[in-house]
Amino acid sequence: MSLARRLITAGFSDLEKGERFLAAPELEGIDQDILFAGLQMAANPDAALQSLVRLIEKHPDLRKLAAADTEVSEPLYRVLGASEALGEFLIRHPEHLDAFSVTASPEPLQSDPAELRAQLLRSVRADPTAARPVAGVSGPEAYEALRTAYRRGVVDLAVKDLCAADPLDFMPAVGAELADLAGAAIEAALAVSRAEAAGQFDAGEVADVALSVIGMGKCGARELNYISDVDVIYVVEAGGLDDARANTIGTALASGISRAISSPAREPGLWEVDANLRPEGKSGPLVRTLASHQSYYARWAESWEFQALLKARTIAGDAELGARYEEAVSPLVWTSANRDGFVESVQAMRRRVTEHIPPAEEQRQIKLGRGGLRDVEFTVQLLQLVHGKSDESLRRRDTTSAIAALSTGGYIGRADAAAFDHAYRYLRLLEHRIQLFQLRRTHLMPVKEEPLRTLAKAVLGPFSTDRPHPDALLAAWQKTKRSVRELHDRIFYRPLLNTAAKLSSEDARLTPEAAQGRLAALGYRDPQGALRHIEALTAGVSRRAALQRQLLPILLGWLAEGVDPDAGLLAFRRISEALGTTHWYLGMLRDSAAAAERLCHVLSNSRLIADLLEVSPESVSWLGTDKELAPLSFEAQWQEITSKMSRHADPESAMRLIRLIRRREILRIAIADSAGLLRQDQVGAALAETDRAAILGALRVAENIVSATGPLKTSVLVVAMGRQGGQEIGYGSDADVLYVHRALPGASDDEAQQQAAKIVGHLSSLLTQPLKPAIMAERVLAVDADLRPEGKSGAMVRSLESYGEYYRRWSLIWEAQALLRARPIAGDDGLAADFVKLIDPIRYPEAVSDADIREIRRIKARVESERLPRGADPARHLKLGRGGLSDVEWLVQLLQLQHAGNHPELRTTSTLKALHAASTLGLLEDEDARLLADAWRLASRIRSANVIWTGRASDLLPSSRRDLEAVARWCGFEEGMATAFEEEYLRVSRRARAVFEKVFYGH
Question: Which of 197-211, 340-354, 633-647 has the lowest mean pLDDT?
Fold first, then answer.
């Protein structure tokens, strides 16, 4: 076989470099067959060969081991092929090459933590038997000795890890030994710090101060990575000193630990010692007494801090003080599920699974993201916190032991627990092997082929001679991630179903109390009620119940992601009961994950949509495709209305169908809005078109009622005003209108006026009067004609000539302002054109007097002072408050009155279009126009969100945290960002108010 072929067979990537290093004089005389036999064991033979040549150059005696039988040389080749960084360490310190003079064991034993501690302490000439060891060396000499001893321990561990017959089986022992090594290094660093502190403080005082180092996170749980920050908390005890003096010395000792571990020195630092999990984080003192910790946890700590303490374990320093700390905080951990804010804290834990992942890394993350390590840890820790308060067997720090305990206790099914444990071990093994190569902190899957090939080989046990293709590794990893995602839902929710459905199952089944605790932790406020709903959905042997048992583990999780999972589950139950065994519904839930998830999210985040879906459950079918959620055009709605009116002559039947169509289309728009398929301006336009179709239908029905007693004598026109005229309405908007009529040929003015009054009277009542049976969950369309001439004192409907006469003689500037939003929506097209021709000179005058401008400003100031509800916070009122809708709209309308006569671009009923035109014409600075548009859109969005969330209209930014969270999510903010959303609205509206005052009042 040629040399190149042998290199390829052995797994080399760079054949030229491989041939060059094989010809190195350092390898002269070594049998090439033996050499290749060793290199074939290496995950990366290129790295192994290069490190071997460099090591022999430094330490020629290594030739003997390199040329030995593979049973003897296996540790050498496996370590050099798995870790370039450890090869570099041994080149720096060839005196530690004796680490390879061991016989590889397929079932290695974990090192004794006490012996590791003693080795590290002896490396800095400290007495391991002393109560408070003090190093015999300090400064750079001590740092180098400590770090060298630590890395020698890592080499010893790597030998065992890489030679273990089953790397997955040995993985927990690796994490435990790495944590023990870290604790030993911190113990030695504390000894060095004590020696250094004696030069700064009185030696007796330093000896009096007890310092305990509490390991947190992975170190506390004894599941540390090869390279990771070590999270700690420092506890100090004064001895014979006062607390202030002890804290000063304790701070110096803690700072000295970090200096010995990671400060610049000839031997590189090990890792960061991170104390940010301490009370008050970076803002708090570095060390505290036990009493100070207890006081903080009793008065100020947040829920997440108690959950973090689940992993707390004394790793160095005063063991007795550390034991007292652990004893003090343990009850806080296991009662945290009963504390206020626990559910919010759980939701924050869930967010941390996916937050802060740069887009470029999202698909490469092993730790973060759905299906990653943190997903496993979140699931396990949450189950521990929920059930561990009453079951002490679950109080385990490390993940693998916790999974086993949850299975033994019946909280997780045995098969699911085994699969979850295997997935976790596999992901951790990937993480270990990736980090080991360069001893660099990373949680990303490599992208280049060579490191992927190395990793694919490295995760296999020593008995495998395969060199899998990178694609096989990636496929296995993706399969594991999918498994974790599926297992999360099964592990969390399947036992709830077994309990609720009273299934006779060998799988996990919880007590009712445990099931309620689990549901409460997810955010269900009425866990008893939730269990009743689950029981109703899953009990029995029907196909529907069987399918619900299959689907609910996933659906319950999606519902729990909403703001009100209880309401969502109740609505889901009602919809499921209404649709019964409908084949398309069950099929959609089973076959369309996107539709099922969309359903769960709208039910648990929107009272309005949930109510509408409950009374028209057939609309659930729209969720399966975006095409079905596209709002129907006015023409399509009107065609449907005319078709139904032709088959239902009686007014009540016709109006029922018209109002049902409107209810249906509001639901369609709301679901499309929730799915992010519509912009805010598209929502307003779609709702306005739906109202227009209903109003036109009601007008035709009213005309039919009147014509039943005699011929029609007039044509009636309905003109939309206000936000309806601008097509800028929300889900809770009334319809502001004017009514115009014109007598038909042969009819007298009085006859036409009387008949027009009858028609508009019928029109209003047809849209609002209760029907029998009632239309459930209908958003009744109230028609308001208060903007008509003379207001409530004036005639409800006027002829076109009467409007002309009034506007010529009596109209005021505010009426011209109101006409800026006038838009004919129903009635005679000719009359509509004539009315627009009549009002255009009024609303688009060639000039506006200074007196009129002063009057508009006076009215605006009066509206602000008189119409704002008593006690309302002006900063939070969306319509009349500072920087709210009224400010933006009045400013825009003032500009239209001043300039639309000369600039046709401003002749629009749309606020946003007029804003854009004003900016283009230079009437507003571009940045001011953008800011006003942003404020207007956000306020409009919040108004709609209030209706979507509660089913009721409100013009206030919510103050309740729960309501604010729901509205924030509807407005596009992530879960848990309610405060940021609130601050954003207050900031934007405050800036919009400044622009308004500058332009409107000229301030």
Answer: 340-354
Q: What is the pLDDT of residues 529-582, one digit of tens each?
A: 999 999 998 888 787 888 888 888 888 888 998 999 999 999 999 999 998 778
H or E element that contains 210? strand 210-215
- pLDDT tens readout for residues 250-285: 999 999 999 999 999 999 999 999 999 999 999 999
H or E segment to which residue 717 belongs = strand 714-720
- Chain mean position to CA 624: 24
Strand partners, 716: 741
Q: What's the DSSP call for residue 166?
A: -
d(CA 459, CA 521): 37
| Residue 741 DSSP one-character state | E
Report the C-alpha gap between 280 and 305 in whole angstroms: 10
State the SS3 of 279-335.
CCHHHCCCEEEHHHHHHHHHHCCCHHHHHHHHHCEEEEECHHHHHHHHHHHHHHHHC
Token output for 768 = 């609002």
C-beta neighbour count of 544 within 10 angstroms:
18
Amino acid identity, position 36: F
Write out the two tokens for 464: 């495998």
Spatial distance between the Cα atoms of 442 and 431, rounded to a whole number of angstroms = 8
Q: Centre a 10 Å sphere on the Cβ of residue 30 and count the other Cβ atoms it contains.
A: 18
The alpha carbon of residue 141 and the mean position of all alpha carbons in its chain are separated, in whole angstroms, by 48
With beta carbons less than 8 A apart as the criterion, state whether 155 and 85 touch. no
Distance between CA atoms of residues 226 and 335, nearest Å: 33
Chain segment 284-295, per-residue pLDDT in tens: 999 999 999 999
* Cis amide bond preceding 25, omega within 30: no
3-state secondary structure at position 658? helix
| Residue 96 token pair | 């530690």
Query: Would you state the structure tokens that stand for residue 556, as one six-digit string?
Result: 């319950």
Helix (H) or strand (E) holding 935: helix 926-950
Pick the closest to residue 211 from 236, 194, 232, 185 (CA basis).
Answer: 236
Report the half-sphere exposure of 42 (CA within 13 A, side-chain side).
33
CA–CA separation, 422 and 181 (whole Å): 25
Nearest to 988 by CA among 946, 914, 935: 935
Continuous segment of H or E residues that includes residue 145: helix 139-163
Pick from 350, 315, 66: which is nearest to 214 by CA? 315
Q: Which residues contact 747 (CB under 8 A, 6 or more apart)?
A: 713, 714, 755
Residue showing tokens 């939003």: 821
Angle at 496 between CA 494 and CA 499, to 5 degrees: 110
Category of 740 on φ-ψ map: left (φ > 0), alpha (ψ -120 to 50) or beta: beta
CA-CA distance, 924 to 138, in Å (whole number)?
69
951: left (phi over 0), alpha (psi -120 to 50) or beta: left
Report whether pLDDT(501) > 70: no
- Write phi, then psi, for 590 (nearest 5 degrees): -75, -40
From first CA to last CA, the distance across the chain in angstroms is 90
SS3 content of the chain, % helix, strand, coil (to 5): 65, 5, 30
With tokens 């094989």, the residue in question is: 22
In the beta sheet, which residues pair with residue 740? 717, 798
CB neighbour class for 792 (10 Å; exposed up to 12, middle 13-18, buried from 19)? exposed
| Residue owning tokens 């521990």 | 384
| Residue that is written with structure tokens 């005082």 in the block | 205
Runs of H (alpha helix) within 62-216? 62-66, 70-82, 84-92, 113-123, 139-163, 167-197, 203-208
Task: Give the C-alpha separation, 616 to 579, whole Å.
Answer: 10
Q: Contact, 186 vs 213, CB < 8 A?
A: yes
Question: Looking at the chain, how many residues does it have?
Answer: 1003
Helices (H) and strands (E) in the chain, counts: 43, 10
- Contact predicate 412/406, CB 8 Å: yes
